[in-house]
Amino acid sequence: MRMRTLVGRRYKERPAEATLDSHSLLLRGAYARQVANGIYSLLHPGYRVVRKIEAIIRDEMDRVGGQEVLMPVVLPRELWEETGRYQAVGSELLRFKDRTDHDMVLAMTHEEGVVHLARHEAGSYKQYPFMIYQIQTKFRDEPRSRGGLIRVREFTMKDAYSFHRTAEDLDDYYRECAIAYHRIFARAGIPETAVVRSDSGMMGGKIAHEFMLLTDCGEDSILKCDTCRYIANAEVAEGRIPAFPEDPKELEKIHTPGKKTIEDVTAFLSVPLHQAAKVVFYESDSEGRPVMALIRGDLEVNESKLARLVQRQPVPAEEATIRKTGAVPGYASPMGARDLRVIADPTVGESNNLVTGANEDDYHYRNFNLDRDCPDVEIADIATLREGDGCPRCKGALQMRRGIEVGNIFQLGTRYTESMGMSYLDENGQAHTPIMGCYGIGVGRMMSSVMEARHDKFGPIWPISIAPWEVHINAIKPGEGGVGEVAGKLYDDLREAGLEVIFDDRDERPGVQFADADLLGVPLRFIVGAKSLANGNVEWKIRGTDEKGEVPVEEAAHFARKWVDQAYAEIRAQANAKTEPF
Length: 582
Prior knowledge:
It contains 17 helices and 30 strands. By secondary structure, it is an alpha+beta fold. The chain has three domains: 3-237 and 399-453, BirA Bifunctional Protein, domain 2 (2-Layer Sandwich); 252-379, YbaK/aminoacyl-tRNA synthetase-associated domain (YbaK protein, Alpha-Beta Complex), CATH 3.90.960.10; 469-574, 3-Layer(aba) Sandwich (Rossmann fold). The radius of gyration is 29 Å and the shape is globular.
């Protein structure tokens, strides 16, 4: 590729809209251009990186027995109705009508599509287990697009789906795919990804893990033990929250005029926040019952945890809903409330003599004790953990980190196969429902994540495996001293040696050429200039390091071939070193 004809304008200034370094470099280096909010076009360098990431993914998915297929982006409403997700998923699912007035969706994920495909093709036990995958365009009408390709509306996704006869077989394959993910990320240049327990969300299933690139600019909150290997997304993290047990005292009703918030009432009574039990109301659970979440005053409700319990996304309750239960807004408690579901965090029961509402205007109770005053409520972990809370596995403390999700895996169970009527016949002719696993990687997000992890102030530092080119040639003043002729010959020699080369054949100042080379981030650079040519040499430099030197012109192609091969070998060795996924 010759720079003279490369489409795309590179520039020095950081774009005002770029909040992440990777977003800035994506635009400055002419890898992508925004078309609309969360929708991007890829220019040639960006597309070359994406194609290489896809090739790595394909290689590793094939290695674990995957069969590549291609499913449509547009699916009929009926498939999503079979699983109940047409109604359950909100406005992020783009719905539209075709010319015959038939309801259709733009698929944001393909569980329905893959079960529809597989249920007609895999009716015998002899075909199990199997995995099929695709690399396909998706659309999610994301309300908070950010960070360039980190969070977008239209995106390219590798989604794989495995089908099994037993939970044990799924467990084994789930682990195999997790190891394959480690190889993928290592080959792409981010070997230090952390595997964290996560919320399965709209996907369903009870077991899910995310692969996180830990970085301060990440969008997800991660809790990591400072002593052992425990690590989990804050949405599902477990931990030890300090309790404040005391000998129970007699319940006492007290006048608290106008004190409706937990902060106001505790200040009025001169007690710490942890000595109060606060109430948070939500409209309903999956059975239509209003939900009262009861949590200690110094803690917050983790709505992801609550959502798994109530089997729907919690929605804050209207005042009318609260009053129907007999509770009084601002003075609410479970005592005397009716016709609702009360879920209390364990911390409420582990601490004693708390302040809580009396369900009467301007009154609260002192010395509320859950096991005595409301012994029959549902107890469940609904607290958001904080940095410094105890690890659930050891005596260590949890540290808060940030991360970018670069991949996820789920054990879906039979949620989709059962609802869509997929079955197979066993050795005795008995019908059974297959068990599913699901494994996703966002390709564009992965490109931006590598950029985020591997860059300096000048541009990205691509690993050899996904760099847009392997070698970059700078011809400095190509019209002088035979520079243009030698650089052109080197370009031909490198291509003859099987290398991918970008050749800056423009008559631009060295500063302009070097700035563009840094933005393209190619690992190995040759600088052809009159000074080094006077000694029969060309300069070489490794991007992102202090390594540099000179090599005779006639040996440059061999030098490059050897260096590139060694760089690939090091990445392969690192990728194959990981054998324990969790």
